[in-house]
Known about the structure:
Layout: H1 6-13, H2 17-21, H3 23-36, H4 43-46, E1 51-57, E2 64-70, E3 72-74, E4 77-81, H5 92-99, E5 102-107, E6 110-118, H6 121-134, H7 137-144, E7 152-157
Antiparallel strand pairs: 1-2, 1-5, 3-4, 4-7, 5-6, 6-7
Organism: Nocardia gamkensis
GO molecular function, one term: oxidoreductase activity
InterPro entries: F420H2_quin_Rdtase (IPR004378), Split_barrel_FMN-bd (IPR012349)
Amino acid sequence: xxxxxxxxxxxxxxxxxxxxxxxxxxxxxxxxxxxxxxxxxxxxxxxxxxxxxxxxxxxxxxxxxxxxxxxxxxxxxxxxxxxxxxxxxxxxxxxxxxxxxxxxxxxxxxxxxxxxxxxxxxxxxxxxxxxxxxxxxxxxxxxxxxxxxxxxxxxxxxxx
Length: 160
């Protein structure tokens, strides 16, 4: 069995500052790939990385907002971090997620409801360490952000 070298390459590239500066280009490519694949694939999928599409109502407008995100596997749950590519401000999706109790999650073609929980306090350090181990680029993004504390969320599938 041949293993896919792309995820390892993506992890190495994600630790380069110039990659974080390419966010606008990557986000445009993401939209194009999502549109061309009918929402089934995105940049992270093509790179062999775990991704989810999260939809929550906008906290001000109530209009559903969908964002493709890298996730950190956490048992059966999904952990997402508001790194915003190392930018100084929190991403808008994280404020919307913070205001929501549930979200719609699309993972590997399956769509399902999930509860949203922001991870804080003592648990946050443990989950942060797990996230950095999984995706080392988060440590560099933290530095680029000027030390902004990234919002961390757990998305847990709602059982039937």
